[in-house]
What does this fold into?
Amino acid sequence: MRLALLFSLLLPAYGEVLFRQSAFEAAPPDWSAWSHRPESMPRTFVDTQVSRGGRGSLAVNGQSNVAAYGGWRKHVTGLQGGEWLRLRAFYKAESVAAENWQIVARLDWQNAAGKRSGEPAYVPWTQPQGEWSALQSEAQAPAGTASVYVELFLANAPQGTVWWDDISLERIPAPPARKVNVATVNFRPQTSTGREENIQLFLAAIAKSVPANADVILLPEGITVVGTGKSYQDVAEPIPGPTTRALSEVAKARKAYIAAGIYEQEGHVLYNTAVLLDRQGELVGKYRKVYLPREEVEKGLTPGTHYPVFPTDFGKVGLMICYDVFFAEPARALANQGADMILMPIWGGDENLAKARAIENGVFLVTSGYNHPTYIMDPGGERLSQAREIGSAATATIDLAKPYNWQWLGEMRTRRLKELRVDVAVPTPGLLR
It folds into this structure.
């Protein structure tokens, strides 16, 4: 009993609010202005005219200085390595070109000697709420942490101003694992009479090779045309249509999400499309292949125009198709919207580029291919499972909550989001000046 009491005294009190502050009317003594050097110090002040509801907020202005980087920071002591914290804050910005990297909220971990105990944890996700935007992020204190600086900055926005209000930091329990059983099928019909026979062959491959506990099942690109000798026009169909109805029955029976590549017809327009169905067999959504190779264009297909991300009961899923892997934008667009996993039906494509897409965006990448291997890849570019034989499936249980840290850089999925420069214009391809 005494030992249990001792441990309870040593452990952090989860749910404990370390601080909660709003309605700033004067410069708070527990916050200080900070920058790397005097020449880059922005103007920090309390603005009593701007607030979310009380009176006043913490403001930072660039002072027409392109080098300005810094703002407000607060030192919170009494922490332990391994515990989890949740930082919440609201900000309002004016004349800030790229809020993703020019508005910075982060936790800068410190050890007992006042040195960094690990890489700072950035708050990557923003939710607009009227004139203000909400930030919230959960982070684990690195080993050896004794304190943390809560930092609310403006970065290199010379004409910009940011106001901070309703700021809080609290201890929280460790978040639960987000484990997902993934299965991806390696199958290719060699000769078939058409779309209907192909679908039955693919469904038989699922029945044979995919375990019953799969949460996600992926099939390849163009499952309605491969091995049939038919044209895209011959097999194209509306969505919903006969193929999605057949996949729906399997998804519902297995209580699993299913994604596959088919050919869609809408009016007179043909698309190379990937569909996603949920555990109830309902169509979650579809993605029309944005990057079409010349060969598909010349056979009558039209490219898609956007990169949707789909919510599931375990996280957000993005879809790519084959030739998309040769370009950086599709995977980046999905990751920017919070995709935890990218499902990619693929005919054939560069394996090195596929690995790069997983690594550079910090996402799981799952492929199902014909001339490209069928595998499940983690955010570090490692293949967790691969289906080498026709008629087999690669399976793996992945944890979407698991951090993937680089030794010198920290957790790159969120860091990339905070350092990606979307405000620097990219020259038009092929336009010589």
